[in-house]
User: What shape does this take?
Amino acid sequence: MSASPVTRRDALLGAGALAAFSCVKPAIAAEQGTLGALAASKGILFGASMSVRELDRPHGAKYAEMYAGEARIITSDIELKASVLRPERGVTNWEPADRFVAFAETHGMRTRGHTLIWNDDLPKWIGGLGQGELGHFMDTHIATVMRRYGKIDIWDVVNEPIAPWDHNEENLRGGAYLNALGEDYIARAFRTARAARASAKLVLNEAQMEPETERAHTFRTSFMALLKRMRDAGAPIDAIGFQAHLRAVDAFDFPAFAAYVSSVADLGYEIHITELDVNDSGVDGSIAERDAKVAKIYGAFLTAMLAVPAVRIVETWQLADATSWLRDPYVVKPKDGVRPDVRPLIYDDRFEKKPAWDAVARAFEAAPIR
Ligand code: XIL
Assistant: This one.
């Protein structure tokens, strides 16, 4: 397993110590009390997914400033997905990912690459490949992308392997990779990634396990069984990503979920919270009441998660409500019952802090050092 994502230097660079190191890139906010600094003081990397297309919008400068002030690590929101990178057979669109890496470099941030292999969000031409062609595409895609972006040292190699609604064996998500290569696509992807960049931290990223629902428990059972089969297959997985797209109307038992996360960590995996947000669709009341409910869930979730020593990265999925994926009508159709004015994040539509920001800060302040 490669070095921990947060070095001792990061921890020392936590609140208050940062200004003493003139070598720290000036773009990293030096003031105490940013979420990045609070988290680093406990040995945790805090950040968020980031979309370079937001830099070109009227709020681009404020968006960049917010990230530069808060995030020590950023994840590519769409730039490294096959739908963007490989829009057509024989066409590779490197420009958005190049900009993503350049932004991180400018601001002295670490980066997570999301995601190399996903049976969702796949361009149709990839889905049309035969078994042999698809295996070759997968191997060359992983190697090419990881070698081009050598500065990205943490990768979501496989995203969302479980999907009970697809009714496949072991509740595996259906799609081109599973259809062509069977479950072995997962271990093969990790072996290929390890061969491409031995020093990179390789992550298996999954969603939908956090609430106290029948579906979440099915996910937990299926995912744990998958992990054990991957260990038996010798798949070089270093860390497990829990997306943590929480819905405020769901029931939760975060201490019980933390016990599940600990049982995953006990298998020898580092834990990353990779896509945290709290969807307040279905929460009635004023904006202040909705924001208070969202903040309470952020605080309770992170308090439980940060009690698990293996949790080393916490990222939200974007930082501000204004750029949340849950606001995208393409992604979340009004029929899905998601209100278009959801307020799932820690900054609002004017890039101002919300009560959820304070709840996250308090959770980092109270977290044990790892
Ligand atoms: C989302 C992006 O944020 C959207 O902009 C895009 O239209 C759809 O995908 N889980 C994941 C992410 O792993 O890749 C998804 O990102 C959100 C759910």
Summary: The first strand starts at residue 45 and ends at 50.
